[in-house]
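Recap from last week: sequence in, structure out.
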Amino acid sequence: MKALPFPCIRPAQDRVLEALPAMGSILSDNEALREAIADGLMLKDPGAAYYVYECSGEPGRVTGVVAICPVGALAGGDAVAADSTAAARAIADLKVQPRPVSLAYETSPVMDIILGAAKEGASLYAVTDPAGITHRVWEVKREDAVGAIHAMLDQAPEPALADDPAYAAALVEASQLLADDAHAAGTYTGKEPFNFAVAALFPAAQIAGAAPQVPTGLLTHQVARF
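Predicted structure tokens:
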């Protein structure tokens, strides 16, 4: 499957506990997000990276890798969400995907070793939510580590949706809205960020039914200029 590193908009490491409870306001519109970036509450990573995400709590511990995947990977499900249009328009207007969509994929022992090695370093975040679930994130941007993850994901079969179908449908529709705008402006190339969705890829063997969700605003994907 195609899963690439990406430049992330995320909370400043030393202000994550301040930022996460305020995400409803921060991600309410472009102006609020710009103000949060200018204030240093949120930051735009200068380069592309993969992120290792670990969710631990009562159900156990699950480790995934966060990357951007072609939006088409979300469009193959059977479920159709009738109420996705309003959410799609909100994402298209904000021009930021507020959280990764959760997908299940077939991992490999080699991939598990690579992600385990990434987790030996210092984490960007270690946040426990009100439900007692701890969310940890590690950034992977060293060239050899990025290359190793890329190679492993390239060999994996296409992932399956493990999230709310309405959210996935909204992401697909938001991508189409932005593509329509680009076509109308005569600027569409097919390489725009809105052709990709940021996804948390979890090993299928570690999840049953719906996968964990990365907290809103922790790892976001800018899909168009704002």
